[in-house]
């Protein structure tokens, strides 16, 4: 299972459709959570079944992360990433965001088993290729 956590999923509908089409061949489903509280609960209930997470950075902190320094939601995904790694250090994560701060990209580039992709630069098939590469799968096969 791939968990996509993003509060703006309608804007990236084609990315999701391409992912679902390709990954179904491999028996994987894409589950989408648009709210951090729902994503947090889903992750905790399904963490053993999740093979990869695609995570946005800029999201409302919700109840779960409201006590953390998220810069009014601008860095919620960074806090969520640290939580995920605390629970599943081996879990591959693609940080998929519109954040253009080069320091954010460098921060995630230094993390093991993590990729930072800017939404504006990534076509749907490029995202599919990144997911398949991280999971050791061939796209569409």
Task: Tell me about this structure.
With 141 residues, the chain is an alpha/beta fold. The protein has helices at residues 13-24, 36-46, 76-87, 102-109, 124-135, and strands at 2-5, 30-33, 52-55, 93-97, 114-118. The protein has a five-stranded parallel sheet, sandwiched between helices. The longest helix is centred in the N-terminal third of the chain and has 12 residues, at 13-24. The radius of gyration is 14 Å and the shape is globular. It starts with a strand and ends in a 6-residue tail after the last helix. The mean pLDDT is 84.
Distinct helical segment count: 5
One letter per element, helices H and strands E, the order comes to EHEHEHEHEH
Averaging pLDDT over every residue, what do you get?
A: 84
Cα radius of gyration in angstroms: 14 Å
What's a quick, concise take on this entry?
With 141 residues, the chain is α/β, with parallel strands linked by helices. It is built from five helices and five strands.
């Amino acid at each position: 299972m791939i968990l996509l956590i993003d509060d703006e999923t309608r804007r990236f509908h084609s990315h999701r459709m391409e992912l679902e089409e390709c990954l179904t061949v491999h028996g994987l489903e894409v589950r989408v959570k648009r709210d951090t509280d729902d994503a947090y609960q889903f992750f905790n209930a399904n963490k053993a079944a999740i093979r990869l997470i695609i995570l946005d950075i800029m999201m409302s902190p919700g109840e779960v992360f409201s006590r953390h320094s998220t810069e009014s939601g601008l860095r919620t995904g960074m806090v969520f990433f640290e939580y995920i790694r605390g629970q599943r250090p081996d879990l591959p994560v693609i940080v998929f965001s519109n954040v253009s701060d080069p320091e954010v990209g460098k921060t995630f580039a230094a993390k093991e088993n993590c990729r930072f992709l800017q939404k504006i630069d990534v076509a749907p098939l490029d995202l599919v290729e990144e997911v398949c590469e991280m999971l050791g799968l061939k796209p569409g096969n």
